[in-house]
Design a protein that fits this description.
The complex is a heterodimer of chains A (312) and B (475).
Chain A (H helix, E strand, L loop, with lengths): L3 E2 L4 E7 L3 E5 L4 H20 L4 E2 L2 E2 L8 E7 L5 E7 L2 H25 L2 H6 L1 H18 L1 H4 L24 H10 L1 E5 L8 H14 L6 H11 L7 H4 L30 H14 L1 E6 L8 H14 L5
Antiparallel strand pairs in A: 2-3, 4-5, 6-7, 8-9
Chain B lengths: L13 E2 L10 H19 L15 E4 L4 E4 L2 E3 L4 H22 L2 H6 L1 H17 L2 H9 L4 H27 L4 H10 L4 H21 L1 H7 L1 H6 L8 E5 L1 H5 L14 H6 L10 H4 L20 H13 L6 E5 H5 L13 H23 L3 E7 L6 E2 L5 E11 L5 E8 L6 E2 L5 E4 L4 E10 L1 H6 L2 E8 L7 E6 L5
Antiparallel strand pairs in B: 2-3, 3-4, 5-6, 7-9, 8-9, 9-13, 10-12, 10-14, 11-13, 14-15
Helix pairs in contact in B: 2-16, 4-6, 4-8, 6-7, 6-8
Classes of the chains: A alpha+beta (312), B alpha+beta (475).
Amino acid sequence: MIQQEKVVPTTTGHTWDDDLQELNNPLPTWWIWGFYVTFIFTILYWLFFPAWPIGGSFTKGVPGWNDVTYTATTVDGKQVQKTTHWNMRSKFMQDMNERGAEQKVWFDKVAAMSYEDVSADADLMQFVNSAGKTLFSDNCAPCHQAGGQGKIGFAPNLTDDYWQYGGTYELIHTTIAGGRRGYMPPFKEVLTEAQIKQLANYVLSLSDEPHDAEAAKVGDTLFHSETAACFYCHGAEGNGRIELGSANLTDKIWLWVNVADEKKPELKLSAVEKVITGGLNHGVMQPWEHRLQPEQIKLLTVYVHDSLGGGK
Amino acid sequence: MEAGAVKQSPLFIKSIPIVTRSVKGKFRNLKTAVMLFGYSFYFILPWIPWERAGAPSQAVLFDLVTRRFFIFNLIVYPQDIFWLAMVLFILAALLFFTTGLVGRAWCGFFCFQTVWTDLFIRIEQAIQGERPARLKLQKQPWNSEKILKVGSSHFLMVLVSFWTAISFAAYFTYAPNLLGNLISGHAVEATYITVIVLTITTYAAAGILRENICTLACPYARFQSVMYEADTLAVSYDARRGEGTKGRIVPKPGLRIREERIEQGHGDCIDCGFCVQVCPTGIDIRNGLQYQCISCGLCIDACNNIMDSVGYPRGLIRYDSEINLKSPTPTKPSIQWMRPKVIGYALSVLLMTGTLAYHIGTRLDTEVAIQQVRQPLFIKLSDGSIRNRYQIHLVNKTELDETYQVGVKGIPDEALDMGNIPHLKVSAGKDLRVNAKVSLSRELAAKTKKFKFIIKPSSRDEAPLEIETNFNSPQ
């Protein structure tokens, strides 16, 4: 055993009822002092931190002793400095201010450089990839989906190589900042059902889909006639006009009806007929210039152009 | 009102401070040798310069800021974290192996707690004198002599603790600038915290708490005994020889010569108490194997010296196994390694050391991971061709900046589109993530299920890395 000194405990010195005594086993001194230190700590704590509830409020510590200052953005977009007593919310805001300052260095770089220079800078592109993914997920993904792949009949695919409104940096920027509104009038009152069928056959023929060649020939004439006047928007070649956002009918990409993946020819035909008959009035994208900062829009432009990969 | 005498409480027994006597002998020399050997590594290693291109010229530097561990010519990156698991496994198996063979040799000779405690006891001894002098000093009132002696020995301990902390911090920052930065207030917060905390803990653990760390705090002390077997060599008292039939007894007239003692039934132990006085954990080894025993062997040295002086054979306390001590025909104690447990531990140490050496030896200077973008899995382009996208993650594990070329194998070269970043420049020890697009015509896409990316460092004459990856298409 360890070399030990055997201690005989003493009593408190009082005897009750002839033989009843109380052992005196005081707590270790270090423990007692540790206990006193916790008292001192609590008192200091009350002076620096929110502590005691008083009715609907609480003590906030001595004003000015442990204040937190942070920058907040008001509803109307103004930056204001706020100073409050210590609390978790203000500490969080302070943290966000600091992280924001770190991020700002990178955003400033993006803002100062041309699109081409940003896309050629490998380090900056890492930032575009990560910050762009977050911005895209927060703002764009509800329509264009998380990977930018879009949804047929709803939102364009941003990862392919066709751009209704143009795929250059400048045009993508215009689209994000100002939004877009696509419109195709319904033709059911202008054209007969037979004419719509002929037109639909012609449209299918443009992208090598199965079609009735006879009907398509009539449709060709109709397409370029003043009666249907399709060529006004879709162009004489049928490959669309980016200033209007009219679809290119000659490529393999379908936005509003899924013709390419439809197996049965008659269903392909009826899908196109449906568009010509009813027109389209839901190709709407809202403008983002009032919701996002200019450097965020610029970064998103590069993200959409280079990271999602459809730009040209 | 009289304080009555009560039964003594068995629950609380106050322990008295241990004041050890110094001893000379072979285990003492071994302990000193291990201490000098260990200290010459620990205190000198971070100060050795080592020329490196584009990185601090320090032989051993664990650079947390750039996330690189420099160990002479080896640079360890976060991606090599599984080496740490291997090292930990090797150390653990080595501990089990040694414990199975010769008991708690780690505790007695190598453990930091033991080594630093040993050093601090030596400081005490150098200033305050041998055990009797120190015991006398303890009983003295606090006069100037006591204040001076105790104060200066504790001051020296704090100084050693401080230098221990400085040396530790020197492994994590550029050592030549450490002291200057520390004094001028330019060192980072973490350095100050490390130095202060380590100074306090070293001084407290080795200067004040000492054996209490081993007996009360250390988990290894408890589980190491599980690895003992009956064959394990442990520091043991030969009770049969020491006690005889009538127990140990101090020599007195008629009981001085060994033959006389044996005749009267007394053992060889002359009850001098030296084995207890030299023990750093304050136990009496004659009570048998105890959890407090750290197997330092100092009691063996003490007993051997006494046996020599009274002319009895050595080895009353010795390294011996339980089996041998109990055996009616004891043999000379020897290491018994022909046991499945010991051989198993040895094999696992060898196997894991080999694996670790193989991994370190064959690690490539470039690490590449290629991940396919899965949302969407493939993209149909306007001319009907199919595009897949990939994210290439490159790690440059050399000391120099490097530019990499990316190519493809198994598909046409023009299928690969690296955007506006054709050359990938990666700084020394850094990594880079870039996008890559691969587009194949519908016919080619239907035939292609897999292809290879080729990554080639442009400044080094090295075989390019080939990484096979999938190509997804609608079919």
